[in-house]
Amino acid sequence: EDKVVQSPLSLVVHEGDTVTLNCSYEVTNFRSLLWYKQEKKAPTFLFMLTSSGIEKKSGRLSSILDKKELFSILNITATQTGDSAIYLCAVSDGGSQGNLIFGKGTKLSVKP
Amino acid sequence: KAGVTQTPRYLIKTRGQQVTLSCSPISGHRSVSWYQQTPGQGLQFLFEYFSETQRNKGNFPGRFSGRQFSNSRSEMNVSTLELGDSALYLCASRFEVNSPLHFGNGTRLTVT
Predict the structure, then answer these.
(1) Section A93-101 average pLDDT
(2) What single string gives the DSSP state of each residue in A6-58?
(3) Above 70 in pLDDT, residue A97?
(4) Distance, in angstroms, between A36 CA and closest chain B CA?
(5) Beta-carbon neighbour count of residue B9 at 10 Å?
(6) Mind telling me how many Å the CA of B79 is from chain A's nearest CA?
């Protein structure tokens, strides 16, 4: 059965800390891995990764994929209270028209 | 460019009733997907429509159905509501199968 596992489930840090969120997956026909940030309602798209070893970066956020070991990490440096959210990892299954399989998410709380 | 729009934002229904949720995708996006989000199960895939055809379906009972219109707008219907159907229902659209999903703010359904 295809699955996506995120760790930790929750994390509390202080402003200025650096955090690393983990996502491992088992998918029959891997197409891509995506990261989303969910604050109140709509998950907002952060990154889409398709190739191993190529870092995607946006401001203080960065992500990388390891297709051999079947995992990805999302790094957030110099965290701010506005980074508090649930971070969702999803894998696109190429065998089912690109259906996204989501992990349960990591709830990040950044304290001032 | 307007984002994905879902209506209504909130719904309260009683067991046994039926409900219809609406979603307008981003202009130019022909694919619309529906997800159910609950605290225990996370985001679970319901179905995807592309050019008015259901392209993919998750593991939900037949009480959950949907359709897509020629202007790409989509509706989701749940019949014979159960307490366990209480959830946030998220709609997402994308340009093509290799594009990231973009989510709406969701419809919060409460079944009493």
Answers:
(1) 73
(2) EE-SEEEEETT--EEEEEEEE-SSEEEEEEEEESSSSEEEEEEE-STT--EEE
(3) no
(4) 10
(5) 11
(6) 24
